[in-house]
Amino acid sequence: MRRIKAGIIGTGFIGPAHVEAVRRLGFVEIKSLAEANEALAKQKAEQLHIPNAYGDYRQILQDPEIEVVHDCTPNFLHFQINQEIMAAGKNIISEKPLAMDSKESSKLVKLAQDTGVVNGINFNYRHYPLVQQARAMVERGDVGTVYAVRGSYLQDWLFLETDYNWRLEPEIGGVSRAVGDVGSHWCDTAQFVTGLDITKVCADLRIILPVRKKPKRPIETYLGKELRPEDYEEKAITTEDYAGVLFELENGAKGIFGISQMAAGRKNRLYFEVDGSRCALAWDQERPNEMWIGRRERANEVLVKDPSLLLPEAKRYVAYPGGHPEAYPDGIKMFVRNFYEFVAAKKDPKSSPPDFPTFADGHHEVVICEAILKSNRERKWVSVE
In this structure, are 60 and 171 located in the same domain? Predict the structure, then answer.
């Protein structure tokens, strides 16, 4: 495998996860890092052992050795930076959402097509072994006709009124928060497993805490630092904490999912169930190495992740033997593995179907999110255009 050099823009929570995953591949070097200013870039580069640090991301784009750039910046920057990365002829991995609205995301899809660059978006849950197993079972007909899909994505990282993050601010994170952030992951995973698109939605959203306490100085997400009362200022909240969504799939099957970032005790629980005419499937991201298989006429099963037990399509997403758990970091690793192998082989995304989510998938999730917001406003079913 030829060696590939890459750069990364943005090193908050998710950026270091990208760096770790890429380094595990063995044939990719993270050569450069860019942050909001040079001082922060140098600090992060030292922490992550990256040789070059820039306060201007355009310096990465000017480096002819760099073939791939990871955009891990806050949401409002994705559209502009993704455009510039592709205009520079660099292959690109973007964090989701692809852009702040579907007009922007559709432009990025077109630019990706026009430039021919390899483009991917980090819907990493597709790449867990048992999610791949579920998809393979559906494709093979083992599940039968899909009757219904249900599930949830629950977190508690915004449970307290003092919990705060840039995602709460619509000008930075977007007009949808819970749905746009984790709901997009749930929708992508459900559609990936079933092979069916969501075509209609009926949504009910709620802001549980209309006012939160924002720290007067920046703090790291998820660290839960305790500040004094005088260290906060009140901030009005306009994005949803909770969502309940009915939906219809393209084959007429119905579904329902719930999203909350204020579910006490749920840290990162993406859960889905698929009811089919032959069996049912259920998977929980907090128990990622088990998949429940429901039967009517014989005993139910719990399939434990073990390469010797999985279908060939899923087996290639397993790096360790049975009894050796694989989870969140491994899902990202398998995503970037597929992406970088595609780049290393110099495949053309126009003629070779990528085995990873692309900007077209990212655009589709933005469109679903907008339909959910419209349904909530108009209090009715809305088609996903």
Answer: no
